[in-house]
Amino acid sequence: MTGRSGLQWLLLGLAVALLLAFAAFPLLWMGLTALKPSTEIFTWPPRLLPEAPTLSNIERLFAQTHFVTYFKNSVIVSSAAVILTLLLAVPGAYGLTRYRFFGRETIAATVLFTYMFAPIMIIIPFYIVMRTFGLANTHIALVLAYCAFSLPFALWMLRTFFQSIPIDLEEAAMTDGASRFRAVIHVVIPMALPGIIATAILTFILAWNDYIFARILISSDNLKTLPVGIADLYNASVIDWGMIMASGLLVIIPVIIVFSYVQKFLVAGWGSGGVKG
Amino acid sequence: MQTRGLPGLLLVLPALLLLATLTIYPVGYGFWLSLHAKHSLFPQQAFVGLDNYIYLWHDPEFWESLRIGLIYSVSTIFLQLVLGVAAALLLHQSFFGRNIVRGLVLFPYMIPTVVAVILWKWMLNNQFGLINFGLVSLGISSEPINWFGRSYIMASLILVSVWQFFPFVLLAVLARLQTIPTELYDAARVDGAGPVARFVFVTLPQLASVLFITILLRSIWMFTKFDTVWLMTQGGGAERYIRTMPVYAYLRTFNYYEAGMGAAVAIVMFLMLVAAAATYFFLFRGEDQL
To answer: What sections of the protein cross the membrane (chain B) (predicted)?
Structure first.
């Protein structure tokens, strides 16, 4: 059903090009700047492609800053947040789907309501609570914060996935002599895998991208995560644009890889809330 | 086989305990804190009743933060919606390479805020920025614009925010567009409806419920947006022209060390949100089958 005239094709192409120029070009420009030597970065008029592409910006980033430490911290904290969230949300969502108990819907609604609390509302008391427990300036505090922020959408998203799995399958496995636990592991979990992956990705991105919790909860330089580390790099007295753009490029590479791999799962999970931001 | 009973509750309990200690308790504690004069770092505190709120009522900086916050959230929400819906309609068309374009357009929403801010600070750089180069060479502006000075800092902030968050609207609307039955369009065509009439009478009513929830979520998130605004205030000297309410709450707590006052600003923000959300539901919910 593509009865478009030449003019319509032209307009369509133009609109798509404009959209891409707005949404994607700035990212491309960041990548190109990261590969330019500073003589080419600070030139007027600006040149699109690097004439003598170089990795010197990345080398400087590794040699002169704690970028590698920040990167390692981000990987540790984000992975731990994903694991903890799944450990709590998968059984939780299963319990909210397959069992009937008093107050179940109230619990589900309350969980959704906590989705409304913005980080800025929570962070001040959260910081004081963490300090009371002696957890301020630790990665544990960050993992707990990200888990708390992911749990509401994780529970809701997984619940919709569990609801879509026919209960007959579990019953059949159990009639065949499997315990409920084994039925869940071998039948339910594999079928809910797209939902579990989507939840893991969204939690990872939330933790990987967070600025505010890491800014306030972490004070030691060797515990900082990437967003805070990069912001501090920018706030240093002289702005080394080539190095800053290189740091930006390296930070989004994991996001790009993970995201392009799981895009289809993500779109499926969007209906149930999506990630906060 | 929906089993009755305790095992279900036990499965949910760990998640609930974590949520209760780490989100519900802090919000409650925030209310309590807002009734006290408390230093952010030291343990001394004194009950002051509603003094913090009364102070804010007479505080010009607070009202200014509300005004700036409203300008910021209303304009970014409006632009995100227009751009997000338009882009969704565009990417709903079939053309070669559509899936790649869809993926690329979502990136701004997926990357860390700090990256979005630094890359736009580079694009908008006074001396070497691409935007100023474009404006000057096209003759739109006779000299490079200071995007981070008093006159343009809000425009720059709005630009970065719309860029970062319009893909959320795009994705939500696109997902819904794909579920509209094509029979509805065929029927409208038979009745002689042109493209505009089909959009107004078929597409828009179908989008009503997704737009309802998208506007609600985006309003909550833009009104309480901290990181984009805060990072835009860093360096440039025009910080106070984009000092929204979340930034003001942060400054009160972590620059003036008045945790009680900071909490009071956050609580006022929360109460305004609840009131606005309730009004919104009251006005529009009847029209949707939510």
So the answer is: 9-32, 70-91, 103-123, 152-175, 196-221, 261-284
